[in-house]
């Protein structure tokens, strides 16, 4: 795969200060890089910011999506490493939202020299309860989520069908696409959802050797405080900061404090 | 006929009309909000419920005091709904300020589920700051049942397609195996001769009737043939199989091209009678090693003539034209020709997939003359180079190739 293909495949966007330390913002399940739109401009004033969409999400090249590859978090880590190789990135401050925090852990374990620091934004190494571990969900809950995805399948098909055919002679469709964030092919979303919520990366946390910041929210049903504390205890020397934010997307609900926390850690 | 819009206030109400009007007047905005046929809900940006109407309270089974300021909207949803809300609904509302017709399920206080359709709009301040979310919630039980039917039908259709694709793959693999069984897996080594064959399938989905073979007869003599059974598919494959076996047996019994074709004609006539008549076109040849080359005796049964690409750069057809297809008539006539293969000469046999390929020049088909010119440009050459060049030629036709093509080249290396 040539470099240009990786940039197009993953809709890679580089902004900010050339030559400045690199902050890579990785979106989680459910959306795409547009989720960073309230924090990226602030970070771009000081850093070189790399944004991208995982294959299958956002405006990536969906034709490059393969179920085998993206049915495990290693496939998403491959996307991250492909981009790092293509842009020849080193000492990256990798900011992974939600499931992407674990993608960052996996990618950093495989090519440690490419990463300088990890920011795990509302991470959870395992969403399903097991023994004494409280991830917050049961396998049946995850099936329910898959049903919810499925229920919104019909609406998706109707609105997305014209975009999928990708008619260049109908520019109004491009407008429609920019107006509809985070639309994902249901088949892709289903695999991403399963991979996200059924992965167990608790064993991988101990392998993290680089400076790591855990950012959690005051109240977050997907990554509750107990899970944040678990990650903090499992990664030697990690720091944890609780943001004054509610929900699972602090980069949208509290962009200033989120950006400030990332910047201050990246700067140190 | 279009329904006439009802006037909001009747101009001259009768006595019954007066009663209607007073009922209308009593229906205050507040009354409409509380008892509207849909749920109303206002939340802060973090999801905390600050206002909710009676309809929705009745659906979820909570009192107002239990909800206001205490629960977030996702708290009213099933766990799957909560996850969907946090990963999709909340971020999208932040980004685009509104969301339409999201399918979710409410979990009522007694544990039952209510499928709903949710539409939300963010109210913003003058400076664009997002203040709160206004949400309408519609009972979607009937609609969801209908959609479940659609989803089920869709899953069935997808499953049927998967099965069809799998069956098609399986069929393709069976066809491939069968097709390969109709051709020799490799050609035998003939001292002093380079023999190369190729087969180009126009379609992966059907069996072709093209065939070829090369085998030793003993005593410095070899037999080869190349032909084309009329038709395609399993029937043609059966004829191909019979044809190959018959020609091989005939060659070992009486290694003489004309009598081989006669034996094949008899076999096809016996096996396929009346309406089920089956025939093929074929060239049969015997190679006899003599001096530094080979003498070739060819017999043609309705097949396009072989091409001779000579060491001196010329190319010509070996005239076997005029022979009749084999199996068509009780007593056909076949045409014999003899040729010498000296050092540097190459003999090319082919089926009409190449000459019948559609092009944009001449009469729309590639044709014999173009093929002869092609051979002329190629000579002198080798068997391998001939097959390689012919393969490129066939590929250059692209979608213009309707039929399969078998190629067999026999060349005597220059030294």
UniProtKB/TrEMBL annotation, chain A:
UniProt GO MF annotations: hydrolase activity
Listed InterPro entries: AB_hydrolase_1, AB_hydrolase_fold
Stretch forming the signal peptide: none
Highest taxon of the lineage: Bacteria
Domain AB hydrolase-1 residue range list: 24-261
Keyword Glycosyltransferase: no
Assigned keywords, A-Z: Hydrolase
Keyword check for Membrane: no
Family listed: Belongs to the AB hydrolase superfamily.
Protein's UniProt name: Hydrolase
Organism: Nonomuraea glycinis
Automatic annotation (TrEMBL), chain B:
Coiled-coil intervals, chain numbering: 143-174
PAS domain span: 25-77
InterPro entries the UniProt entry points to: Bact_Sigma-Reg, PAS, PAS-like_dom_sf, PPM-type-like_dom_sf, PPM-type_phosphatase-like_dom
PROSITE patterns the record matches: PAS
Transmembrane found in the keyword field: no
Molecular function, one GO term: kinase activity
Keyword terms of this UniProt record: Coiled coil, Hydrolase, Kinase, Transferase
Superkingdom classification of source: Bacteria
Gene3D superfamilies: PAS domain (3.30.450.20), PPM-type phosphatase domain (3.60.40.10)
UniProt cross-references to SUPFAM superfamilies, sorted A to Z: PP2C-like, PYP-like sensor domain (PAS domain)
UniProt-recorded name of the protein: Histidine kinase
């Amino acid at each position: 795969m040539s470099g240009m293909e990786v940039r197009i495949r993953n809709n890679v966007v580089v902004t900010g200060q050339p030559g400045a330390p690199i902050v890579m913002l990785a979106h989680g399940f459910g959306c795409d890089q547009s989720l960073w739109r309230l924090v990226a401009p602030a970070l771009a004033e000081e850093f070189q910011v790399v944004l991208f969409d995982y294959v299958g999400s956002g405006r990536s090249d969906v034709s490059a999506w393969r179920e085998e590859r993206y049915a495990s978090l290693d496939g998403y880590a491959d996307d991250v490493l492909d981009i790092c190789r293509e842009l020849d990135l080193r000492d990256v401050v990798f900011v992974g939202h939600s499931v992407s925090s674990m993608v960052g852990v996996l990618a950093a374990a495989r090519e440690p020299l490419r990463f300088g620091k990890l920011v795990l934004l509302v991470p959870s190494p395992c969403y399903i309860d097991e023994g004494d571990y409280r991830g917050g969900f049961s396998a049946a809950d995850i099936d329910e989520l898959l049903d919810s995805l499925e229920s919104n399948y019909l609406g998706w098909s109707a609105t997305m069908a014209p975009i999928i055919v990708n008619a260049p002679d109908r520019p109004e469709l491009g407008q429609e696409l920019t107006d509809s964030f985070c639309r994902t092919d249901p088949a892709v979303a289903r695999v991403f959802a399963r991979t996200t919520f059924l992965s167990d990366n608790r064993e991988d946390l101990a392998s993290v050797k680089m400076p790591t910041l855990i950012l959690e929210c005051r109240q977050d049903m997907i990554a509750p405080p107990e899970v944040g504390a678990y990650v903090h205890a499992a990664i030697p020397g990690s720091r944890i900061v609780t943001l004054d934010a509610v929900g699972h997307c602090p980069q949208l609900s509290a962009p200033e404090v989120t950006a400030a926390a990332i910047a201050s850690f990246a700067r140190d | 006929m279009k329904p006439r819009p009802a006037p909001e206030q009747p101009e001259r109400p009768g006595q019954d009309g007066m009663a209607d009007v007073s009922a209308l007047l009593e229906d205050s905005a507040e009354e409409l909000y509380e008892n509207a046929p849909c749920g109303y809900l206002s939340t802060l940006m973090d999801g905390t419920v600050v206002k909710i109407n009676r309809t929705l309270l009745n659906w979820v089974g909570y009192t107002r005091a239990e909800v206001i300021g205490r629960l977030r909207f996702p708290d009213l949803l099933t766990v799957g709904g909560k996850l969907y809300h946090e990963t999709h609904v909340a971020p999208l509302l932040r980004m685009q300020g509104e969301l339409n017709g999201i399918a979710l399920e409410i979990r009522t206080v007694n544990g039952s589920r209510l499928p709903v359709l949710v539409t939300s709009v963010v109210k913003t301040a003058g400076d664009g700051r997002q203040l709160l979310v206004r949400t309408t919630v519609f009972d979607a039980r009937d609609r969801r049942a209908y959609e479940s039917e659609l989803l089920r039908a869709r899953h069935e259709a997808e499953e049927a397609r998967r099965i069809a694709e799998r069956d098609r793959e399986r069929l393709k693999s069976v066809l491939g195996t069968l097709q390969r069984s109709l051709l020799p897996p490799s050609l035998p080594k003939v001292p002093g001769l380079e023999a190369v064959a190729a087969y180009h399938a126009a379609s992966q989905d059907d069996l072709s009737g093209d065939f070829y073979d090369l085998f030793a007869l003993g005593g410095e003599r070899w037999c080869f043939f190349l032909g084309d059974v009329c038709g395609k598919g399993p029937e043609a494959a059966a004829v191909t199989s019979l044809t190959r076996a018959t020609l091989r047996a005939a060659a070992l019994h009486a290694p003489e091209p004309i009598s081989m074709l006669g034996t094949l004609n008899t076999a096809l006539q016996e096996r396929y009678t009346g309406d089920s008549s089956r025939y093929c076109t074929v060239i049969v040849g015997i190679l006899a090693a003599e001096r530094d080359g080979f003498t070739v005796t060819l017999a043609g049964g309705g097949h396009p003539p072989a091409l001779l690409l000579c060491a001196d750069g010329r190319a010509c057809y070996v005239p076997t034209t005029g022979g009749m297809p084999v199996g068509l008539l009780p007593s056909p006539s076949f045409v014999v020709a003899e040729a010498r293969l000296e050092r540097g000469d190459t003999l090319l046999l082919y089926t009409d997939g190449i000459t019948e390929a559609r092009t944009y020049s001449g009469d729309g088909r590639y044709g014999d003359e173009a093929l002869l010119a092609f051979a002329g440009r190629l000579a002198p050459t080798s068997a391998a180079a001939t097959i390689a060049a012919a393969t490129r030629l066939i590929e250059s036709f692209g979608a213009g190739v309707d039929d399969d093509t078998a190629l067999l080249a026999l060349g005597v290396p220059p030294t």
